[in-house]
Amino acid sequence: MNNLLKKTAAASAVAVALSLATPAFAADTSSAVRGKVVTQAGQPLANTKITIIHVPTGAKRVIETNAEGNYSASGLKVGGPYKIEIDSETYQDQTLTDVYLQLGEVRKLTTALSMNDVERIAVTGSVIAETAPGSSSYFGQDAIAGASSLTRDIKDVVRANPLVTILPGSDREMSVAGMNPKFNSITVDGISQNDDFGLNGGGYPTQRSPIPFDALDQVTVDVAPFNAGVSGFSGALINSVFKSGTNEFKGGFFYETLNDDMAGTPETVKNGKRVEVPQPFDETTYGVSLGGPLIEDTLFFFTSYEKYDAPKSVEWGPAGSGTPNETDATLEELAEIREIASSVYGLNDLGDWAVTPVEEDEKLVAKIDWNINDEHRASFTYQYNKGNRTRNTSDRENELRLSSHWYNKSEELNNFAVKVYSDWSDDLSTEISITQKSVKTLQDSFDMGMADVTIENLKSGGDIAFGPDQYRHANYLENDTFTFKFDATYLTGDHSIKFGTDYTNIDIFNLFVHSSKGVIVFDGIDAFREGNVEEYFYQNGTNNDANNAAADFNRESLALYIHDTWAYNDDLTLDFGLRYEVLGSDDKPLYNANSEARTGYDNTESLDGIDIFLPRVGFNYMVNDDLTIRGGVGRFSGGSPNVWISNAYSNNGVNVGVFEKEDFETSPTPNNNIITSIHEEGIDKLNGAVAEGDVNLTDPDFKLPSDWRYQLAADYLLDIPGVGEDFSFSAEAIYVQKIDQQWWVDASLLESDKTGTTADGGLNLYEGDERRYDLMLTNSDKDGRSLILSTSLAKAFDNGFKFSASYTNQDITEAHGGSSSTARSNYRYNVGLNRNEAYVGAANYEIEHSFKLILGYETELFDGYATNFDVFFERRSGKPFSYTTNFNRFTTDRNTPDEKKWNSPWDLISPGLFGGNYLPYIPTAGDENVIYTGNTTEAEVLARIEEAGLSGYAGGYAPKNTFTTPWVNTLDLTVRQEIPGLMEGHKGSLYFTVDNLLNLIDSSQGKTYVNDFGTSRLYTATIDPDTSKYVIDGVKNDSHSFEPLESTWRIKVGVSYKF
User: According to the model, what pLDDT value does residue 250 have?
Assistant: First the structure.
């Protein structure tokens, strides 16, 4: 402060205001100003009148400074411009103009008054705030409009943050700081945009973003907000607000198109040769926005509508089809299966692989703002979205799925929000928020008239599946979420005390009974022709009614918090906060006595009364005008999908019955076959019987997963001789220690069931039986951690050029990423060795290296009409994956049931399940723990191990997630040219976005390969029942999936008009 006092009053106000404009983001829908008025000598000026005016709407806030010269105004509209009038009875007045506020920001303003004439001082927001470094970022309307976005998704805006990664694939998963995409919290106007239940990979409650892109006003990202007022995430907090109407009518419309005429032809490598794979598509998006006054200075409206239509292209087909990816199954095998289905079973339509379903999406936002008086204002927001997407298409080499095996997933979203902002005195203000969110989810198969059928072990080595997949047989979800939030801010001396409460109530109705139409496996085409069933599985609600197994329950959460922001002096701000959260539910899963007898656990745990304390401490120290050091430590919890808890309600083993049968013959006819009707024995078993099905339960001693986050960062304004001044450099380190992370075990798999291990001593073996499995959600006894280092450099030049460059390094470990929604999948598919034991390895979403460069340039190619060029470049590491053992199901004569059961590796290593991701044993030369059989030789296996880079692990097991998919290079360009409008104040715009510019420049570049499940099979094997040795009978060489659309250039062309 001493240095600043040497300057003039005007320079003091500007310098301090800008230097203290560091945002402190929270899950807010507003902004705040906290200021101090002093004399030239630094003495506080009490009882000084402060008038804060939002110029676009005329909203006014009048307050006075306290005895320490401090004042505070919260609940202010984001953006601006604001005019702040400082009226002193003793000193000359000052007026600050063009003040802009960022979402969630507490703008600190220190003003020194003098005895001179009245001054007019302009204070503006940070012109490159959208490139804010490290774990927290801010994006204004310029950054939103300039984002190179093919999909009009908020994710394309926030990917400029160094810690954000948008992953390839239709879901466009967004991982922040290497965390599960489901663990983020996304809000707009205080309304959660999260998939509260937890089924969608994209993180939204809908298939695409539910947010009209043109409705976005401001967006923030924060990974470690040391503010006790926020929670509900274990990844990042992505917060935003919709635009609001003003005293001036403003609006516009747009139309965009994207099709294969404006795109390259995807190329892939087949049999060592690069071949083109045509990928037809045609997408259109259009929308309109309008806002303005209903009553000048008092009541305002804003609305935005957006519509998207697109037929989807085919990415997988049978071998010889010429698709970008080909399965092992061939066209000839498919033709033979079709002929048998028609002639033997009377099934003339199994679907096809070459189907192009249409994806649609429609979204709407309507908002009303009301300036009640100078002390109170309110807002009302309504949001609607409905869209669909086709799922369960073929996605890996070993199985070809026909369209009857696909399903259409659709959601309908209705959101309402009411907010009231009040100033009760100069020192006390409050915010009240009430929201209601309703989501309905349908998952309809393309053909519901038959069972789920798989014909496996084809001569090609592949499988072919048709009929509705088992998880869509009875599947409907509806959840309604109500929230009430109260926040109060009280200014006392140099302390701003914020306290409040959050209450959430969610009603969930989940009808999910997999396999209620039957699941059938035929061992080869001949078995299919003859009607010889290898496996039959049927599950349904009691009395063969799936509705009897629906889960209908309610969950609540309550949080109380208090947070003190202490302006210790003009350079140092300290934050201290404590948050308490407790969960509640009066609904319990149905009790299953058989499950408790097997496991010793009561399956009715509902987490009622489970609680957690979340302390947080932070600081922001302005060392000098150029250097700021910030950091903190805090505990965070939340973001876990509700579906994990719902599993215990849906799978209690009481209201669901199971029928299984293996190796039996049928005599199929078109009018009497097992594919279109349920097995009679299954119907009889579930009619009136007390069911004894599989059980999911929650550990009665379950603790809420959480983590401690430690952050230390430095922001520095530096000069580069010969280049420029005031480059913004930032360096940041974040360490996360995970605690009580989620884990799934088979509670009925007891130590006493263990019969030994494999010959090497690594893999536990159990006695095969017909047990039910009891999968329990619990806490891992081994927790992971994160170490994230990030640096960035940014600057905006006077000539219209700006840039931001960053590098991020992630070193993240975990035992379980929680990537699935069902307990069965989370138990089976987490990579490890012994299923009930936790194995820590690289996290599923770790991106070890990430380089980003964002460029922008604004000029006028035509006088008076802006031309903008925006570039986004990223080069990053691929995602981790693990090599696994592909265990064969059976190893001896399938006609000998007792031998088959004993020799099924699934019964030996994980009774009751049919699969899992097991780390492979890496044999040495002449390894006595391994037997080679069939046409597989030791030399062949060792050569594959050498090729995979696993030789260093010989004599033991391959580690978890040690390998990564290929590096990903992304280069996108957007060019926007303003054009004249039809009348004064109107302007149009022509624009285009080039996605994957690298591929346009060089067709061999910009290729994207993914590993959808994070595993790659190394070899096929079983376990010898006499010696417990591994019996390796085949070598696998899985390739990563090629993403054709994301691996070629595409150009989106659009036109917009604004007034």
Answer: 96
User: Which pairs with CB-CB distance under 8 Å and at least 24 residues apart come from 229-232?
Assistant: 229/26, 229/27, 229/487, 229/498, 229/500, 229/561, 229/563, 229/577, 229/579, 230/26, 230/27, 231/502, 231/559, 231/579, 231/581, 231/614, 231/636, 231/637, 231/638, 232/27, 232/185, 232/192, 232/638, 232/639
Check whether the bond before 81 is cis (ω within 30° of 0). Answer: yes
Identify the CATH number of the domain defined by range 136-512+550-655+691-741+780-814+848-879.
2.40.170.20
* pLDDT recorded at residue 108: 87
Contacts of 364 (CB under 8 A, 6+ apart): 212, 303, 304, 305, 306, 382, 383, 384, 385
- pLDDT band, very low/low/confident/very high, at 12 (cuts 50, 70, 90): very low
Instruction: Quote the CA–CA distance of 643 and 553 in Å, as a whole number.
Output: 12
Stretch (H or E) spanning 828:
helix 823-829
Q: Which positions ≥6 away from 723 have C-beta within 8 Å? A: none
Q: Check: CB of residue 616 under 8 Å from CB of residue 749.
A: no
Evaluated on CA atoms 582, 588, 589, 595, the torsion sign reads positive
Strand partners, 632: 618, 711
Contact 697, 747 (CB under 8 A): yes
Block residue for tokens 């294969």: 260
Every domain of the chain and the residues it spans: 4-125, 136-512+550-655+691-741+780-814+848-879
Reported as type and span, the H/E element at residue 649 is helix 643-650
**What is the residue type of 1035?**
V
**Quick one: DSSP state of residue 357?**
P
Residue 611 has pLDDT above 90, yes or no: yes
Two tokens at 827?
Answer: 């138990």
Cα–Cα dist 332/355, whole Å:
19
969/971 Cα distance (integer angstroms): 7
Q: Which two tokens stand for residue 803?
A: 């840039």
Number of Cβ atoms within 10 Å of the Cβ of 561: 22
- How far, in Å, CA of 388 to CA of 408, rounded? 7
Work out whether strand 572-584 and strand 551-567 pair parallel, antiparallel, or are unpaired: antiparallel
Closest CA to 966 of 1003, 1005, 1008, 997: 1008
d(CA 171, CA 28): 27
- Looking at this protein, which amino acid is placed at residue 675? I
- The whole-number pLDDT of residue 114 equals 84
Assigned token pair, 88: 């002193």
Angstrom distance (rounded) from CA 84 to CA 59: 12
* Dihedral sign, Cα of residue 713, residue 714, residue 715, residue 719: negative
477 or 266, which is more confident = 477
- Is the pLDDT at 893 greater than 70, yes or no? no
Copy the structure tokens of residue 790: 């990030």
Residue range 662-698, pLDDT digits in tens: 999 998 988 889 999 999 999 998 886 665 778 999 9
Q: What is the pLDDT of residue 908?
A: 59
Mean predicted confidence (pLDDT) in 367-379: 96
Residue of 648, 843, 835 whose CA lies nearest to 234: 843
Q: Is the dihedral of CA 542, 546, 547, 553 positive or negative?
A: positive
> Is this structure's pTM higher than 0.85?
yes
Strands 1030-1035 and 49-54: unpaired
Contact 914, 1014 (CB under 8 A): no
**Could you tell me the two tokens for 982?**
């039809």
The CATH number of the structural domain formed by 4-125 is 2.60.40.1120
Q: Where are the beta strands (DSSP E) in 863-967?
A: 865-876, 880-887, 930-932, 963-964
Whether the CB-CB separation of 769 and 907 falls below 8 Å is answered with: yes
Residue 716: what residue type?
Y
